[in-house]
Amino acid sequence: MDIIDHDRLLIIDFGSQVTQLIARRLRELNVYCEIHPYQNVTDAKLAEIAPKAVILSGGPDTVTREGSPRAPDSLWTLGVPVLGICYGQQTMMVQLGGEVHGGKISGGGGTAEFGRAYVTPSEDRIDMLAGWFLEEKEQVWMSHGDHVAKLAPGFEVYGTSPNAPYAITADLERNFYAVQFHPEVHHTPNGATFFENFVKLAGFKGDWTMGAYKDIAIEKIREQVGDKQVICALSGGVDSSVAAALLHEAIGDQLTCVFVDHGLLRLNEADEVVGMFRDHMNLKVIHADETELFLGELEGQSDPETKRKIIGKLFIDVFQKYANEIEGAEFLAQGTLYPDVIESVSFSGGPSVTIKSHHNVGGLPEKMGLKLVEPLRELFKDEVRALGRELGLPASFIGRHPFPGPGLAIRCPGEITREKLEILRQADAVYIDQIRKHGLYDEIWQAFVAILPVRTVGVMGDGRTYDFACALRAVTSVDGMTADYYPYSHEFLGETATRIINEVPGINRVTYDITSKPPGTIEWE
To answer: Phi and psi (nearest 5°) for 161?
Structure first.
């Protein structure tokens, strides 16, 4: 889907681990931006994108190495504002006539700088730094081995740090700006103001809103699909729910959703999902109850990878079976998001693009001869939630915690049994109810119960028990890539453990998992 009605900001990616954070910062300012790896941004591609401004990201390479990444030469005569960050600053200097010296990491003798640093301003103040240096110095986050040793002609210094004498530089006549630090990370507290100043001087109107996107997306879906039938795998998660609602608004009865119930869902989940979309939103939904098939194939299996592979294969087989019953279906709708698209581009493998299996039904388009409809592929997760609100989805669905495709199977280490699944459903329902009652649900990225493959001795009343132990898990995160455990109070944990033990037969011991990611993962399997 081409977003032709919005000014574009191009981010040229040199391989930084935090390039996506630049895009998130800009989207928060209602500015439409795209990330493209440097290999793909040729002079012709740059002319085709026709950006209103360009940002050069950081990266792991050194500009002192022969053949290291560069921005396209035509960028410097494009006549638009350019901001270089870290490696982006260094390649800007080298390409425009300055010098960069290698640090110890790249074989030079310069001083590297990693972590928190403080930048002080020069005597001259510029619009780009409005709202900065209200105090004597500004906290930033540095992560560089090389450093600029000589400015390119036309550049002046507007901020310095102890190990980066050219921490902030600019050529005001050409609207070129360059910084050695990373304004996109939260360790640079005033970074949002920095980006706000940049897009303001570039002339962006800030009109990238989900209300506007909804109208464009609906028009594009109708143009792509025409009068053909579309099928959509509906899991009840945020992405598939928003995609289904958007498609329904665009093409109505041409859409059929398939909800595969594998018997590994949370308490009442199937009824809630099918009920909302079928009864309240009037979508055509096939409720494929395949509990017996999935649990039968999983019987006796305890290896986590084996369980995942069984579930993945069965899901594809079942979806294909029901999809084949939909006459005239030519399109498959998927909730692919922009981070999936970014990650699917091979940064180190040259200009070729390879889409990896992010999709819920990966492999089906090839098997079935279907064409893909991906109406969310320009959006980040928070934008998908905002779009869901525009489409009138209830807050209970928009704000749902992530739920894995294999469902409760990976929250049940060891062999899966119907007894353990039922205990797990009941315990999870009590736990989530506790979180909601205490007003904590929206503070937590993901929370769930895992039932452990051990039984423990307990005492209830005058009797001895020998029941399962469970672990509570709750994490805070921005994108799920890293996570910290949520710091519950001891009072909350005690109250929750008491409720689970009293209300859920089969559990007599409750623990709380305080492992961060890394070294652990969010899920248990």
So the answer is: -130, 165
- The strand pairing partners of 447, in sequence order, are 474
Instruction: Give residue 377's identity as a one-letter amino acid code.
Output: R
> DSSP for 142-168?
EEESSEEEEPPTT-EEEEEETTEEEEE
Cβ distance 160 to 120 under 8 Å?
yes
Give dist(CA 397, CA 241) in Å, integer: 8
**Residues annotated as part of the active site:** 86, 182, 184
For 329-360, the pLDDT digits (tens) are: 899 898 888 777 765 554 433 322 332 333 34
- Residue 165, token pair as written in the block: 């004498």
3-class secondary structure, 23: helix
**Residue ranges of the chain with per-residue pLDDT less than 50:** 1-3, 105-110, 346-361
Residue percentage of the chain with pLDDT more than 90 = 60
DSSP E strand boundaries for 6-112: 9-13, 33-37, 53-56, 82-85, 99-101
Whether residue 90 contacts residue 146, with contact meaning beta carbons closer than 8 Å, is answered with yes
Q: Which residues of 314-344 are buried (b: 16+ CB within 10 A; e: fewer)?
A: bbbebbeebbeeeeebbbbbbbbbbbbbbee
